[in-house]
Every structure is written in C-alpha cells, then in structure tokens.
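4.2 Preliminary Data

To establish feasibility before requesting continued support, the project team ran the inverse folding procedure on a target of 422 residues. The structure was first converted into the token representation described in Section 3, and no sequence information of any kind was made available to the design step. The complete token record follows.
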C-alpha cells in the first residue's frame, strides 16, 4: 500500500556549465556495446581532438587504446561540438577500467558488469535537469549498482540544444562510471516540419545505443544481454504496427532468446500500457494493442515504462486482467524533471491490478539474484537513508511450470534460491 507521504513542489532547473577547455572531454558517458565491449561517448568543442580512448586497469597506465568515430549535427542556429564514439574491449567482467578521452584531460573510470549473478540495475525515467534530478542521482550513487536503465525522456531540452550539453555535463559523474542504457521518450523527438521531419537528431547523435549488435536498423529499438537477462528497449515513438520494422525486429529478436541462457526477459518503453494516473491516460494503448500479445507469449517478466511522473507497480497482467503468466508492469517516470509530478491518480476500477502507486520522485533497483528470483525496490528521493518505499520478490516466468510449456528451466533451478542470497 502507498503511504501518505506528501512531497514539496518541483525543484528548479539546473544548468551545468562548461568549465573545461575546448579540447578537454565533457559529457562523458559509457554504454554496453556488444559482448565484453563498452562504448565511450564524449564531446569536445575543439574539432581537432582525435576520437581516441586510452584505457587500462591501473590509474594512469593505459595498456590499450582504441580509435572510433565522430559526428556532429546542426539544429536551427545551433551547431553541436564534436561528438566522439569509441568502442573499447574486449573487457574483463566486474573490473575497474581507467580511461582518458582524446589523449588529454582528466582520467575517468568505470566498472564493467559482472559475468554471473547477482547483477543490479538502477531504473529511472524522465530525468530532466532539476534539483530533483540531482537528488535522484545522488540517491542512486549512495549504493552500488551495475547498469543504469532509462526508459525515456532524458534532457528535456525540447529543441533548446544547449540543454542537451548541460544534461550531458550533469549526468557525467554517474554515466561515466556505469553503463547507461537508454530508450527514447517524447522529449527526444524534437522534430520540425521540413527541417527535421524524422526527429531524434540530437538523441541519435549523442546517445547511440548498440542497435546494430541486436540486428536492429534503428537506434530507437534494440536489445542486449547481460548476466542472465535479455533486455529489450522498445520505441514508443517509432512505428510498431504489425507491418513495421520494429514489430518484425521484435519478433525476430524474441525468437532468438534462449531462456536457459537468459532466463530474465525484461522490456523498457516510454509510454505505459497500464496506468491509473490521470496524466497521459491512454497514450500507450495503441502500442499495447499492437504488441502486448507478442510480449505475453514470450513470457516477458517485467515491463518498465516512464512518461508518467509518478511511481506505479501493477500485478502480472494480460489484456487488462490479472494473469499469472503476464508481465509485471512498473511505471518509473519519476526521475525528477521540470514538469513536476503527476499527482492525480484515478479511482481504481479494479483494485487487484494496481498494487502500489505514489506521486513522488525516486528510482528503482532490480537486483537479479539468480535464475529464478529477483528483488525489485523503489526508493523515494527524500528518504534520508534511501528507504525502500516499495519492494517485491519476483519469480522468473521461464521457471514457472504453469506458464512454460517447454519447461526449459529444469526443476533444480527452482531450488537454488535461498533467503541468504537476498
Ligand atoms: Fe514523456
């Protein structure tokens, strides 16, 4: 049950200024880029800086070096800096790598994900750049985690391009240390008739994800594997009807999933399919109608969404009814943006579906303990000691005999979970 906590009003916008030289790296962030590889992205105002990353496992000692590519873009009167993308690896699991971008400037470091359970994901959508965003990121950094998952709405630049740069600088202390995997929200579209009709100009240039590695032809939808989890990032703002490339790609991607290798099947998208908040009511309905059956038949474990600036956790659902073989739906669009909270929830028509809902900023943590069990928790920002306001132990659907005709996960997997592992 949600408690009666009442939040103060939304925090003001935070601009993170550029305080380094033009040739120094800024807006540094890393993402997973195929098996054992990481992509390093950064921006320089100086176009002569090479797209090179030097890296190694000891501070100041760079045993390896890799060269990548660069891009830039124009948007109305704005011209971006030089945006560098360099893929490095193969890298060892659960290892700290120290790295330098463009052959100069400060040293950064990141930790690679582990190669075996447990693995912990942070999930937070609709971040923006306000005092609340800072509060969320500060709470996130108080406990360790392996990979950051962002279900859309990053900078809230909304066509004011320098705000993309400011956002990159705001998140750098976090996104340079752990892989950030994102999908797009409505605030990433930024389309302009005739000039930028297809949209996503800044998003695609600044936050390219490993879509090619998963057979996708679009940065707007892709998938990746990490420690027993196959994670699918869907595009709420790309076509998703049965004739669309996204639909065909999703079918092909799901057909390749081997639940004995990746028992956990997790989907992220932006506009929620299930939502009892008054905000954005029904906006995910067309996508739900197009894709819900596909995800249900694949036995997706969890669907995370953003867009609604509140937290809401549903039970397992299929076609608007509780179903033990459907995904758990979680709305986590509460990262802390300038639009504030979605405070008004509607009266529940079916109280059995929406389990927990609260209009507060915060973040979620999904700790996958083993093949059969994961722990989900939601952490409200203002709890001084990062109290879990909501939590649930989740059983994997591939391990549930009643939902799995193939029984691809053997019975003995069920017995591996013990309370000590929590
Ligand atoms: Fe949104």
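Position-by-position output of the design step:
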């Amino acid at each position: 049950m949600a408690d009666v906590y009442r939040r103060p009003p939304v925090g003001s916008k935070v601009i993170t200024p550029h305080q380094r030289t033009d040739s120094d790296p800024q807006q540094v962030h890393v993402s997973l880029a195929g098996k054992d590889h990481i992509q390093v992205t950064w921006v320089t105002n100086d176009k002569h800086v090479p797209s090179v990353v030097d890296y190694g496992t000891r501070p100041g000692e760079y045993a390896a070096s890799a060269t990548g590519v660069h891009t830039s873009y124009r948007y109305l009167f704005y011209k971006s800096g030089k945006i560098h993308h360099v893929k490095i690896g193969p890298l060892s699991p659960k290892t700290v790598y120290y790295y330098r971008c463009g052959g100069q400037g400060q040293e950064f470091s990141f930790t690679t994900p582990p190669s075996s359970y447990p693995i912990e994901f942070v999930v937070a959508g609709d971040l923006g750049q306000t005092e609340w965003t800072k509060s969320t990121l500060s709470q996130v950094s108080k406990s360790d985690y392996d990979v950051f998952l962002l279900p859309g709405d990053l900078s809230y630049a909304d066509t004011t391009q320098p705000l993309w740069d400011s956002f990159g600088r705001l998140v750098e202390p976090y996104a340079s240390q752990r892989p950030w995997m994102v999908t797009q929200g409505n605030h990433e579209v930024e389309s302009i008739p005739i000039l930028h009709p297809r949209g996503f100009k800044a998003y695609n240039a600044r936050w390219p994800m490993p879509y090619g590695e998963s057979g996708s032809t679009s940065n707007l939808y892709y998938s990746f594997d990490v420690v027993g989890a196959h994670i699918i990032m869907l595009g709420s703002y790309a076509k998703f009807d049965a004739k669309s490339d996204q639909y065909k790609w999703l079918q092909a991607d799901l057909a390749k999933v081997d639940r004995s290798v990746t028992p956990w099947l997790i989907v992220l998208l932006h506009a929620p399919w299930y939502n009892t908040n008054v905000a954005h009511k029904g906006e995910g309905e067309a996508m739900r109608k197009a894709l819900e059956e596909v995800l249900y038949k694949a036995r997706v474990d969890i669907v995370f969404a953003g867009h609604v600036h509140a937290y809401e956790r549903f039970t397992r659902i299929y076609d608007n009814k509780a179903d033990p073989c459907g995904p758990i739906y979680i709305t986590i669009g509460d990262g802390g943006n300038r639009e504030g909270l979605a405070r008004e929830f509607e009266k529940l028509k079916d109280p059995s579906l929406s389990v927990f809902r609260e209009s507060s900023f915060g973040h979620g943590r999904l700790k996958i303990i083993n093949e059969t069990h994961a722990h989900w928790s939601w952490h409200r920002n203002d709890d001084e000691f990062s109290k879990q306001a909501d939590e649930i132990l989740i059983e994997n659907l591939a391990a549930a005999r009643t939902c799995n005709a193939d029984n691809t996960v053997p019975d003995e997997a069920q017995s591996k979970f013990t309370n000590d592992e929590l």
